[in-house]
Amino acid sequence: MSGRVVPALLLSLCLTVASVQSQGSSQDAFIIQYLERRLAQMEERLNQCEQNTVTFTQKTYDLSSELRSYLSSLSVLRSEVKSQVDSVSVRVDRMERELEYLENKIPTQTDIEMEEALLEQQIKAAELDQIKKKAKIKVENDCNTALSQIKSLKIVKKAGDTYGSWFKDPSDQSAKVYLLSGIRNDTLLEYVSLQSFTERTITPPAKVVQLPAEWQGTGHVVFSGFLYYHKADTPNQILKVDLVNGTVVDSTLLPGAGRLPVYSLNPNTYLDLAVDELGLWVIHADPEYGGNLVITKLDKGTLAVDYTWDTQCKSRDAEGAFLICGTLYVVYNTRYGGRSTIQCLYDIHDSIHSDESPVMFFPKRYTSHSSIHYHPGEKQLYAWDDGYQTIYKVETRRNDRVVAE
């Protein structure tokens, strides 16, 4: 009995030991696997940390480089600002000196009042001088003639182009006739008389005067042996040419003229010269005055401006104009040609008013004038009518209302 128990105990003990050993081996393997996983995780974290450290180091380096660049730019900007501040400081100093200088130069209130009084005296003197010039035109020439009607016409000849100008010298008893055909040329034809002009066979022939420069438009005149005309390719230059030798004696630029055709129905004429009992005139249109006509009295010797008047007469639908005793008479028509009428006038003496004067008609005939020139001695108009040289006889009346200022 005892022999069977001992082996059984030994067998049980061995089984117990084997079981314990088996359990310990399983736990060790689990622990080892756990530790391996933890080590792998730690290694992965260490690698990530190393990568983050490299990235942070690179960013820090880049930031440091950028900061160094900003600092360099800031240094340059600081130098520029310092330079500008220095410059402003110099300018402020200079301005202070200039202000101090101006303060010393600024006149007192008494000086200002004296200068204003002197300026007012000068303005009054200038106005008085202009009034004297205007009155002088009236006093030196006892002109009290006004247009009553255009009585009759005579077609003298058809010569030259559609546009042109012809006239006599109204300053003396000369019978010579002058003709300028076209709207631009450098020659003038001089005839010894109206009869020689009308004859088919001219004996002696017409004298051809070669001019020193081309003329433009149809607003020319001969006065006291000199031709006055608008020089071509210039807006407002007037030449005075001696017809004896064909040389320029004088010239002038008419202020404010030449920007608009003087008459809308004659678009090639920008300056229209005229002669009446008072002397030499020039007519032009002023765009700053609504396109109205402006008349200027010229000194025939020096071409200096004596006086200028702005009129209420329109250049629109006008074909020509002339002056009689300082009164401007504007001739109107239609673009297709019709019966010419005088619908507007302007009197420098302010004794004749356009709204008080009836419309005056030219003799019944369809016309289209490119130039109209008044001869005060003959009381006739020399007109260029679509290539026909025409003379109109005018009837005048005494204007007793002209009174010198």
From TrEMBL:
Residues 142-398 form the Olfactomedin-like domain. GO terms for biological process: signal transduction. SMART domains: OLF (SM00284). Residues 1-22 form the signal peptide. Residues 32-105 form a coiled coil. Disulfide bonds join C143-C325. It is found in: Secreted. The keyword Secreted applies. This is Olfactomedin like 1.
